[in-house]
Specification:
623 residues; alpha/beta; Rossmann fold; 3 domains; globular
């Protein structure tokens, strides 16, 4: 159902006619619940097959999770049988086929390695042995799964009386938790807490206090509360923009602390004609796309699926395909300028459709995806186009591609708006090929680039700015490029990688070696500096600090900077600040960056494994 969260309660057979009408207009009529929905649901962003809402109550969180994650099966567990029966009836009436409820005690659940996401909202304060309950949820999670837990804070702020112990609510065995207490208990239960924060800022706490003064813990004075609820809801909504350093609630996101499972071996090829076999077409537009899809290609082929690659000859894309032994059909060559790109698009789309007619793919995929989205939509039998992207400011392309795509898959730190089926994952594009499951740096490869073992060096990367979305970019001036190299040369050797030709004074510094092995070179560098967001992110996931200099940022480089400090972003106008950051970074020990990388790997996933799971779950089956 569209509208305010909790509008499904208007279908609750256990509520009065007035209560159902009120919920139909305004959603769940509980200000505290609405605050928690606003604070907790963003932490559940991602793509999941199975979700558990532990201690689901009336089911409002379960309903919202089912709507936000239509590809997932949501299970709500509640102790009260009447609430379970009513929630199942609401889900049936609301046509939420992916949402079901069952009776159960969150301290005695029988689930084991079953859920990708477990949500627990205001439950632990009801349980005497809360650590045992946490361990139950840990067992329910699959390796690498996510727990999103919210609890009341130990104290709350009153306007005239300052901080006081939180409400004395019937059924609570403790008032709540301080943030450090919740983190410590989750760690004792076997979780690694990736992030935690207080919720209920000053405005939200004020409105929640007023709600409590009206209704108390036993939900009395419903008529009076109904009269003021719209005002409280509107005022508390303003509080969602705050990031309280202290509040009346605590939110934590955690993952199992047990070691990550070893990489699973590729499945044995299935016999031809297997009902689970599918055909997938991959469209390559850029050299970075070869790296992104090469492990996906190999694993899908190993699992018995048929995969075809079409390619655009841009920079070294075709060279990389050859180097990795990936068969391909070239259907276009890069043209420059807006007019040239339009001509190329007009040529490559019908060529792609010709390949589709002969190959008959069950699904197509690519990064950015203008050709696959358009070609898939123009076919009489539409072919699903799965678009992967991580560049928010490519507004013109995204405006055309996203509505035509079957689904758009982005990192969960993506900051742009995506209409239609938007799937997110806890990772970056670069983790499709540089996750430890996929890549191990080899120092022996350095010799192929003319680098001696133990030799300190930095890598500088310059970009040609020929893409459609690069119009807003200025790039470093020739003077800045020369000066940047001179500054780095004072600290050791400098290797320069460039999409375009280098000036004569820099040509001798050009990277010389097998292009398909470049990530071994990056992994052993002291620092990566330059205009490429992709190479900056590659460095970050390998534990090498990066200074990214460009007019526009990216959601993923912002995430790598904010959460791990592995990337520092500056505009060209902040060039002097970038130089200061370089000096600061080079004084840090290498161990600091490897520790930051480990935190990143603890929180992020093997993106190739996610891709394989998604395609097999969505498109495998009888044709």
């Amino acid at each position: 159902m569209r509208g305010f969260p909790g509008r499904e309660l208007s279908l609750d057979p256990g509520r009065s006619k007035f209560e159902r009408l009120y919920a139909n207009l305004l959603g769940a009529p509980a200000n505290g619940l609405r605050i928690r929905l606003r604070r907790v649901l963003p932490a559940t962003a991602g793509s999941y097959r199975t979700i558990l809402d532990a201690g689901c109550g009336s089911g409002v969180f379960s309903f919202e999770l089912a709507k936000r994650h239509p590809e997932a099966q949501v299970t709500g567990v509640e102790l009260e049988p009447d609430l379970v029966a009513r929630a199942n009836e609401i889900a049936r009436r609301a046509h939420l086929a992916n949402c079901r409820f069952q009776q159960g005690d969150v301290t005695k659940l029988d689930f084991e390695d079953e859920f990708d996401l477990v949500v627990s909202v205001d439950n632990f304060e009801h349980v005497e042995d809360d650590i045992a309950a946490m361990r139950t949820l840990l067992r329910a999670l699959r390796p690498g799964g996510r727990l999103v837990a919210h609890v009341p804070g130990y104290e709350r702020r009153w306007l005239l009386f300052g901080r006081r112990v939180n409400f004395d609510v019937p059924g609570h065995v403790r008032p709540g938790y301080r943030a450090d207490q919740l983190v410590a208990k989750l760690q004792e239960a076997g979780f690694h807490v990736t992030t935690h924060q207080y919720t209920y800022g000053a405005i939200e706490t004020l409105t929640n206090n007023i709600s409590y003064l009206i209704t108390g813990a036993d939900q009395r004075r419903k008529v009076q509360y109904a009269a003021v609820f719209p005002v409280l809801l509107a005022v508390s909504w303003l509080g969602k923009f705050s990031r309280p350093k202290w509040g009346a609630g605590v939110l934590a996101v955690a993952r199992p602390a047990r070691p990550r499972p070893a990489p699973r071996p590729p499945a044995k090829p299935q016999a031809t004609g297997s009902p689970d076999r599918m055909r997938v077409l991959i469209d390559i537009l850029h050299p970075a796309h070869v790296h992104f899809f090469r492990n996906f290609y190999a694993e899908m082929e190993a699992r018995g699926h048929e995969v075809r690659i079409t390619a655009r000859d841009k920079d070294r894309s075709v060279d990389l395909l050859r180097a990795f032994g990936l068969p391909y059909e070239q259907i276009s060559r890069q043209k420059s300028g807006t007019g040239g790109l339009a001509v190329e698009m007009a040529q490559r789309t019908p060529r792609l459709m010709k390949v589709m007619r002969s190959f008959r793919p069950d699904a197509m995929t690519g990064i950015m995806g203008p050709s696959i989205a358009l070609a898939g939509a123009l076919r009489v039998r539409r072919v699903p186009a799965v678009v992967f992207y991580d560049t928010e400011f490519a507004v013109q392309t995204n405006r055309i591609v996203y509505p035509l795509a079957y689904s758009v898959c982005t990192p969960d730190c993506y900051q742009g708006a995506v209409p239609g089926r938007h799937l997110t994952y806890a990772g970056y594009h670069e983790l499709a090929y540089l996750h430890p499951n996929r890549f191990r740096p080899d120092p022996a490869v350095l010799a192929e680039f003319g680098v001696s073992p133990g030799e300190p060096y930095s890598i500088v990367r310059f970009v040609s700015w020929q893409a459609v979305h690069d119009r807003r970019e200025r790039g470093l001036s020739a003077k800045q490029k020369r000066h940047l190299v001179e500054v780095l040369q004072r600290r050791g050797r400098v290797l320069v990688s460039s999409e375009g030709p280098l000036t004569p004074d820099l040509a001798d510094l050009a990277v010389s070696g097998p292009v398909e092995q470049i990530h071994h070179l990056i992994a052993h560098a002291r620092l990566v500096v330059g205009e490429s967001a992709t190479m900056s992110s590659e460095a970050a996931v390998l534990g090498v600090p990066a200074v990214f200099i460009a007019t526009t940022g990216r959601g993923y480089t912002d995430d790598e900077e904010r959460r791990y400090g592995l990337v520092r972003h500056f505009t060209e106008d902040q060039y002097d600040m970038a130089l200061s950051a370089i000096e600061e970074i080079l004084t840090e020990p290498a161990s600091a960056w490897q520790e930051a990388r480990q935190r990143l790997l603890d929180e992020k996933i093997d993106v190739t494994a996610w891709m394989v799971d998604y395609f097999e779950a969505s498109f495998a089956g009888p044709r």
